[in-house]
Amino acid sequence: MNLLRTYLADFVSLLFPELCAACEASLVSGEHILCSNCRFTLPFTNFHHQPDNIVARQFWGKINVEAAYALYYFQKGGKVQHLMHNFKYNGMQQIGNLLGNIAGGQLIDNAVFKTVDVIIPVPLHKKRLRERGYNQSTCFAQGLAEKLNAVVDDKNLIRTRATKTQTRKSRFARFENMQHVFEVKNPQLLEGKHVLLVDDIVTTGSTLEACGVELLKVPGLKLSIATIAYAE
């Protein structure tokens, strides 16, 4: 019976091959979402080994961040862009959990990140959430939480108004666009906690900064940041 199932699965995969979400190569037995080549060759930043990495420097003099990290470099037209497009717009929520697991595996032995208590995803406005059906940052947070032994809180930090897309905006315009957008509903639940704020892609850091400003109003809160990708 098991052999029959294997033959049937192989036959179905010939007719409807499962493709790598990054490079579109056909996945073979034992591979899931990403092919083995992409799992090992996508451009890791290794920022968790660099306390003064380029993501961390974006917040210097703006908000107090314990540590900052991005899993991959984002290049226009590259495999990471294709992966993120599938994740955000093609309904492949499972990508977030996988990438969260990969990132968590890198961060679990880091002295700063392994002290994280709560993981908070950058929230979507409720209208955008209805349209997409899920918050990609929450999917990433859930995968991270499994490795970091932390809890995910996707209810406390809320987006109070919708904003226009940040694409093609200058750094200052991005900053202005995100002012007074976020709010912490129950700050007492985060007092004295080490919070890991997560998003999918960081470019100028304006959205993360705006979230961080609100979170850091909570007494005793320590803030770190993690994203799936860093785009220049």
From TrEMBL:
The family annotation for this protein states:
Belongs to the ComF/GntX family.
The family database entries (InterPro entries) matched by this protein are listed as: ComF/GntX_DNA_util-trans, PRTase-like, PRTase_dom
User: Which Gene3D superfamilies does this one have?
Assistant: 3.40.50.2020
Enumerate the SUPFAM superfamilies for this protein: PRTase-like
**Highest taxon listed in the record's lineage:** Bacteria
Its protein name is: ComF family protein
Q: Which source organism does the UniProt entry give?
A: Mucilaginibacter celer
Pfam families linked to this entry: Pribosyltran (PF00156)
The Phosphoribosyltransferase domain is annotated at 140-229
